[in-house]
Amino acid sequence: MEGPEEAGTRGNSPLGDASYAVMVGSKAKDPQRMVDFVDWLYSPEGVMMSTSQTGGAGGPEGLTWENQDGKPVFTEFGRKVLVEKQLDTAVPEEWGTGSWKDGLSALNYPAMGITDVDPETGIDYNFSRWDEYAKLTETALSRDWSEHNEGARVPIKYFEEKGLINVFPAVYFVNEDYSLDLSAVKEQCKQIIVQYSWQMVFARDEAEFDRLLKEMQDTAMGLGYEQVFEFDKANTERRFEVVRQYKADNP
To answer: How far apart, in whole angstroms, are the C-alpha atoms of residue 200 and residue 211?
Structure first.
């Protein structure tokens, strides 16, 4: 059987991307038992139980979360280990004892995508996409974003619902290189922008922030920022033209 690297690099391979695949060796003593385990690994229960560490899954239902009226809600134990990251928390006796950290799957194999949902319940496998998680980890910034976006709590779900996600194909493109002079201008502008940005972060008040912002803009423009911007803009336009043509040829 060919190795993952060899199989995964073949164009249109019937194996798909074999760099992320589970295979049963020809010399396995009990191949059916291994196949049964792989089937479980990809089942809703298997995903939730085995990919908390690598895929952000919610863990065992009843231990870390409960299904209440079709929505996942953290248990007290779940809040400690998944939200507060208290990984040494003791697991209840009925779940095997030990610590949560000791019981995490060591497979390091995410059998799901970050946006996949349980087909049986419609619940996101990844707990960071749950409304309650967004509420428990809310910050002033996320609250402000929510208030400006119809009360949504999970940005990626909001973007999906509104059709605001555009798939960008992996089209090969090489940017035109900067000239030596323009490269020097870019580096100078970068240093000014980084320096002033940090000063603005720690500004005493809005007036100082506005003053620093204007100084940064004036200095960067004086160094030739506009030249760098126009060059980058032209590169971006060329790249998007390649993408546009690719999509036209591959509807």
So the answer is: 9
Whole-number pLDDT of residue 114: 77
For 87-101, the pLDDT digits (tens) are 999 999 999 999 999
Contact residues for 44 (Cβ-Cβ < 8 A; gap 6+): 118, 119, 120, 121, 125
> What tokens does 139 get?
């910050």
Strand-pair category, 65-68 with 71-74: antiparallel
Give me 250's structure tokens: 């591959």
Q: Answer yes or no: are the C-beta atoms of 81 and 49 closer than 8 Å.
A: no
Neighbours of 144 (CB within 10 A): 10
3-state SS, residue 66: strand
The answer to pTM > 0.85 is no
Higher pLDDT, 213 or 168: 213
**How far apart are the C-alpha atoms of 143 and 139, rounded to whole Å?**
6
DSSP result, 109-120: ---S-TT-B-TT
Listed in sequence order, the residues at least 6 apart from 63 whose beta carbon sits closer than 8 Å to its beta carbon are 75, 77, 78, 91, 92, 95
Both tokens of residue 249?
Answer: 């040829």
Nearest to 150 by CA among 141, 165, 162, 139: 162
CB atoms within 10 A of CB 9: 11
60 touches 49 (CB < 8 A):
yes
Show the tokens assigned to 25. Answer: 């060796």
Q: How far apart, in whole angstroms, are the C-alpha atoms of residue 165 and residue 129?
A: 16
